[in-house]
Amino acid sequence: MITLFLIPLQWGGNTREWNDPVVIGLLAGFGALLILFLLWEWHMGDYAITPFKMFNNRTQSGASIELFFIFFAFLLAVIYLPFLYQAKGRTAVQSGIDIIPLQIATVMGTAVSSGIIRATGKYKPWLIAGPWFGAIAGGLLFTVDVHTSNAKLIGYQIIFGFGVGSAFQNTLIAIQAEFNDQPELIPQASAVASFAQLVGGTLGIAIAGTIFSNQLVRNLSGPIGDALGPQLVRAVRQSVTVVFALPAELRQPVVDAYVDAVATMFIVIVPALGVAGIAAFAIRDWNLKERGGAAGGAAA
């Protein structure tokens, strides 16, 4: 079912027009299957993959929505930040090294927030503030161009990684605290939230790819596209490494177009993490020191 949604997102405006019958048919098929899936889940009741009754709990709903949008933003950043570095002349291996600050900041965000939560018993401030710090970083990444210094890019990665890292693990702690008096529901509740996380990450990559591809097509139209010719335009769209094999007089405009397409895509992070931060307000603010089982989970 998800595939029926992802494929037209990849094709639309890229290999096929948005009004192409195949694109429309796939989207319509996704809508029909989604309705059937929801009806079946309702019919199965407590035996459903994702029981609807779980979402009657505001913490469950809030945590699931927050995880959905956190991973929506996180995975697109992890995938497309290396593209940005490669467009600036780095190799694939070097670009992987260049995003190490993001990974370290994410781990540090998780570690620091967990330590403070263990000491104070309060997790909700991290669930609210973390995504909004990430949203700020998304806005900063939107301003990136070919002349942006590495120091700024590292700083943006640190802000983003620390913000996201301080929130996503703690949403599961919130779920454990919520169902502390019903421990038999914790595995099911955690699974529902993890499923939302998986779907969010998958859709994030697909939607980001659609935005990037369509923006790159627009950037390579007009005089730049005329100078390159259709064959080179297709090659540039398929691989950033082609850019640096272009003649010197064409290389810089194409690099600018590529970097602009990646930076434009990063704006999606802002509303995604903004919604994640808002969803956190629905999560109950338990004190883990007063709920022994959940506090033990946080310490772990």
TrEMBL record:
Entry's transmembrane regions: 22-42, 63-87, 99-119, 126-144, 156-177, 189-212, 261-283
SUPFAM superfamilies associated with the record: MFS general substrate transporter
One GO CC term, this protein: plasma membrane
GO molecular function, one term: transmembrane transporter activity
Main location: membrane
Localization, UniProt: Membrane
Protein's membrane topology: Multi-pass membrane protein
InterPro entries: MFS_trans_sf
Domain of life: Eukaryota
Gene3D superfamilies hit by this protein: MFS general substrate transporter like domains
Protein name: Probable DHA14-like major facilitator ABC transporter
Organism, as annotated: Serendipita indica (strain DSM 11827) (Root endophyte fungus)
Organism classification: Eukaryota, Fungi, Dikarya, Basidiomycota, Agaricomycotina
